[in-house]
Write a structure and sequence with these properties.
Elements (H helix, E strand, L loop, with lengths): L4 H10 L6 E4 L6 H12 L2 E6 L6 H7 L3 H12 L8 E6 L5 H13 L4 E6 L2 H8 L9 E4 L5 H7 L3 H13 L5 H17 L3 H10 L2 H18 L6 H17 L18 H13 L3 E7 L10 E10 L2 H7 L4 H5 L6 H18 L5 E4 L5 E8 L2 E7 L8 H10 L4 E5 L4 E3 L2 E5 L7
Helix pairs in contact: 1-2, 9-14, 10-11, 11-14, 12-13
Length: 431
């Protein structure tokens, strides 16, 4: 299945300023697969080393981490010659070997002709908690997220539809109604399946939602097991409690995160480490309220007001134990959850596209779901789960701040009216 990260890896390979690359991301998002597929198609050979399945590798790095020392030994372990520029060296689960991470500094300084990519599922947590000697300034970094809806559509063989969606987005012209309905069905299927590559592959091959839910439950179980790593016993319980509660809070009308909903009398001091763990692991993302609409937005965030979204829509629906048919037909029984689920979907895609997202509230309770900086403009984004697009909050925002334009995401077809760019939810990848 095609992953957009391949384009980034090609640019990295050909860059004259290339450094060893750290590919981060939550477990099961396809880091290893993407790296090995890239190595297979762009290099003469791949020398792959996994610190989880081969713990004895650590001993090699304990002895000496200079490239001159390491390369002959690694060639021997891999059973193939490692050649400058021709071989892709891969260190997987690198969070289990601090010295391997530190060695990247010396590869950057003393042997830049070797192409190295390292991956780690809990790297952010490990570095933060274990106080690793991190090679600051000596590595390139990239985060891999679950597959977005464009990659999902491509996996489903919908290349032509993707091209038409992009054309309609650019031109603000409606997609033919039959294609619009087909794209909306793909959107609802994506909500159920999510972007975990194994789940997408199973859906492409079988269309079996029960099989996919089993895979999602397995991934969720692996996340719970991970929560015991780099954590004290006391924090394990708090981290799991917080993770379980995030999906509950997304069902509230006000999706702003509230500690008191985790447990009665809950406070920031008790749960902030748990939220940090979940964020560093890539399982969730935290977005803050912005108090003023000024550049840079980061300067005006309110650190006490934030929302938390999970990284994958399929896992979100699995965690809520929602039936596939309820989402595919958007039944009334899940009305309380539709808003939070749709916000989560949009935030996931804005994050994948590299945006730092915020939200805004007026003193009287009007709210804009997302504020982003697109090109040079600060743009408000209003999100609706259906085609009910009356939005008093957006009108208030536009009257107050006079943005260049606004974006309204709903199930309505493409268009442009009253300085608002109307974008169907399935086209959020175009933003």
């Amino acid at each position: 299945m095609y992953r957009k990260v391949i384009r980034f890896l090609e640019d990295w390979q050909n860059s004259p300023h290339r450094k060893p690359l750290i590919l981060q991301g939550a477990r099961q998002v396809g880091k290893t697969y993407s790296i090995l597929e890239f190595g297979r198609t762009h290099y003469d050979n791949v020398a792959y080393f996994n610190f989880e399945t081969n713990p004895k590798l650590n001993e090699t790095f304990d002895e000496n981490i200079s490239p001159d020392y390491l390369i002959p030994i690694l060639s021997h372990i891999a059973g193939q010659t490692i050649v400058r520029e021709k071989t892709l060296i891969v260190f997987d689960e690198v969070q289990l070997c601090e010295r391997a991470l530190t060695s990247l500094k010396y590869f950057c300084e003393d042997a830049p002709d070797y192409h190295i990519i390292v991956a780690g599922s809990l790297l952010g947590v490990a570095v933060n908690r274990a106080r690793f000697s991190f090679p600051v300034g000596k590595v390139d970094m990239k985060t891999l997220y679950p597959m977005d809806i464009e990659e999902f559509m491509l996996a489903m063989g919908e290349e032509t539809l993707v091209q038409q969606i992009r054309q309609c987005f650019d031109a603000n012209t409606p997609l033919p109604s039959a294609l619009h309905e087909a794209a909306l069905m793909l959107y609802r299927q994506y909500l159920v399946v999510g972007g975990m590559p194994e789940c997408v592959l199973q859906f492409v091959e079988t269309k079996d939602y029960i099989l996919i839910r089993h895979t999602q439950d397995t991934i969720l179980a692996s996340y719970l097991n991970d929560m015991s790593k780099y954590n004290t016993l006391n924090e394990i319980k708090k981290t799991r409690l917080t993770y379980d509660n995030i999906t509950v809070q997304l069902s509230k009308k006000n999706t702003r995160f509230q500690y008191k909903l985790i447990k009665k009398g809950g406070r920031a001091s008790e749960f902030e480490n748990a939220i940090e763990w979940l964020t560093l692991s890539g399982i969730v993302s935290q977005i803050y309220k912005v108090e003023q609409i000024k550049k840079p937005l980061e300067n005006y965030r309110d650190i006490d007001s934030f929302k938390i979204y999970v990284s994958d829509l399929g896992l979100l629906c699995a965690k809520k134990d929602l039936a596939a048919t309820d989402i595919l037909y958007m039944v009334d029984e899940i009305n309380d959850f539709k808003g939070g689920m749709t916000e989560n979907y949009v935030n996931t895609h804005l994050t994948i596209n590299g945006y730092k997202t915020y939200y805004w509230e007026s003193n009287r309770g009007a709210e804009i779901d997302f504020i982003i900086q697109r090109d040079t403009h600060i743009i408000p984004i209003e999100v609706k789960a259906a085609d009910n697009t009356r939005a008093k909050s957006l009108k208030l925002y536009m009257d107050t701040y006079k943005p260049a334009y606004a974006i309204k995401l709903s199930t309505k077809n493409f268009g442009f009216e009253d300085n608002k760019k109307i974008v169907p939810l399935y086209a959020v990848f175009c933003i």
